[in-house]
Design goal:
Keywords: Signal
Structural class: alpha+beta
CATH architecture of the largest domain: Sandwich
Organism: Roridomyces roridus
Number of strands: 8
Strand order of the largest sheet: 2-8-7-4-5
Distance between the termini: 75 Å
Order of helices and strands: HEEEHEEEEE
Radius of gyration: 20 Å
Protein name: Spore coat protein U domain-containing protein
Helix content: 10-25%
Number of helices: 2
Strand content: 35-45%
Shape: globular
Length: 150
């Protein structure tokens, strides 16, 4: 009887450890704030598109968002006047699977045809400070977008 209880406890402990190791093995360091996908990669100013954030790894690794902010970032040989704010959402922790979506029209702006653009998501998440107060910290991820018709 004692052997059976010990076996059950050991099996439960090993299963919990396997789940933790599996989550950490599946979730790379690069995915610690989630991953992004776009409904389409080629978007013209004024055109509708949807950003989807998969937050499975962010939640599994303890970076559960409080807020999510979305931006367009650009890189060029000269100043392009960014980032461009796209929107902010309050994360719904009851969503299963953990994700967020933002549907919008690409803002009409002074885009540069020679620039490289990306959509950036800032994951604003809470951490306990050294004296117990809650501090909001930020981690970012991005994915490329081709802005057409400029």
């Amino acid at each position: 009887m004692q052997f059976t209880r010990f076996s059950l406890l050991l099996t439960g402990a090993l299963a919990s450890l396997a789940t933790l190791v599996s989550a950490q093995a599946f979730c790379s360091e690069a995915a610690r704030f989630g991953s992004l996908s776009l409904s389409q990669k080629n978007v013209a100013p004024g055109q509708l598109f949807t950003i989807t954030a998969n937050l499975t790894c962010a939640v599994q690794l303890g970076n559960t968002p409080t807020f999510l902010e979305y931006y367009i970032d650009g890189v060029s040989t000269h100043n392009i006047g960014g980032p461009i704010f796209l929107g902010r959402t309050t994360y719904d922790t009851s969503r299963s699977p953990p994700q967020d979506q933002l549907s919008l029209s690409l803002p009409i702006w002074f885009y540069d045809a020679n620039a490289t653009y990306s959509v950036r998501m800032d994951d604003l998440f809470a951490r306990d400070g050294p004296t117990g107060e809650i501090v909001i910290t930020v981690g970012s991820i991005s994915t490329g977008i081709d802005i057409t018709g400029i």
